[in-house]
Amino acid sequence: MRKRRGGGRAMGSAGQSSATRLGLAGGVATLLGIGMARFAYTPLIPALVQADWFSTHAAAYLGAINLLGYMFGAALAHRATLIFGVRNVLGACLLITVASFYACALDWGVVWYGFWRLACGVTGAALVVVGAPAALSRATIQERARTSALVFTGIGIGVMASGTLVPWLAGQGVAITWLALALVATGLAWWSWRAVWRDLVPLEKTRARTTSDARLPMLAIGLIIVAYGLDAIGFVPHTLFWVDYIARELGQGLQVGSLYWVLFGLGAVCGPLLAGAAAARIDFRPALVLALTLKAVAVALPLFSDSVWALGLSSFGVGMLVPGTVTLTSGSIAALSTPERQQQLWGWATLSFALAQAVAAYGMSWGYEQLGSYLPLFGMAFVSLALATLCAGTAATRRVT
């Protein structure tokens, strides 16, 4: 068969592709699936309302429907690859996600928007569930920490852009903003498809790497999945209420609150790289325990102080550890599972995260209405992260043969 120029034929083994290219392609998947499809929408809500495209209630509903789609995507992604194959699922999800950005540039009503926000929620989850394991399972053990860091840097870049570039673009108009995002997404999706995904071939099964559950440390994997769900509860106050807490409850104003969100985004960009470095030094599971411990402390800081230093450390620390714990959870599951089972197990973890996140978001919103303060929510988040640390710590002590 004729060889394609610029990057080798098959992706059946790590030796046939660089860890950097694998990591960057996985990073495109997380950037499009979460960083852009989800986080880019939040700062556009005021512009959508101001441009009279939607009411405040409808705009919030369209944000929630994306989370619903994400849950469906997390539940269905692995089964879809069994029917259509990893390569075809990734190609279809890249196409639909990019198409959703172009579609949202059209003011064709709430039903039109709702369909595309739901669709990109489904495909966004599938890109994370399928794309991350596709990259990690084809990297060697020595390359896995660096590859994992690159894969999940996409989330941090999306968070950073949501606090800086997207608000600036929104000032130019809603349609222009969506078209700019669509053009960037088109270029990234095209590169990742040409560089990696179009040449993807199924992983070869061997006798040495059986897929039998009896050979997998399912208790340790299960504890990590539970920890990941608890982690989702722990990060909700910062990702949903942090700016409003600083702006209104502390009375510092929206501009100051937005500056702390930019600091949160800066931490999110650094998080996967630091997590990858920690995993390379002390291994994934101990690094996950350390990350969850630090995240619990960072989330609890507002309970003790509202000084600039406390709020700044909390912003940067939680921002850093949101994608950082994703990186380490994925790497821990990859280290404990076989390549054939990695995608399924990571799908279970993603579903656990999505369900816990949705329940916590609605529950904490209701709790705020009842309590009239965000501070108790930070306390709940701390307890959840403390339990997550306990689960991850127990998993780290489990001996794996």
Automatic annotation (TrEMBL):
Keywords: Membrane, Transmembrane, Transmembrane helix
Membrane-spanning parts: 21-41, 53-77, 89-109, 115-136, 148-170, 176-197, 218-238, 258-280, 287-304, 316-336, 348-368, 374-396
Name of the protein this chain belongs to: YbfB/YjiJ family MFS transporter
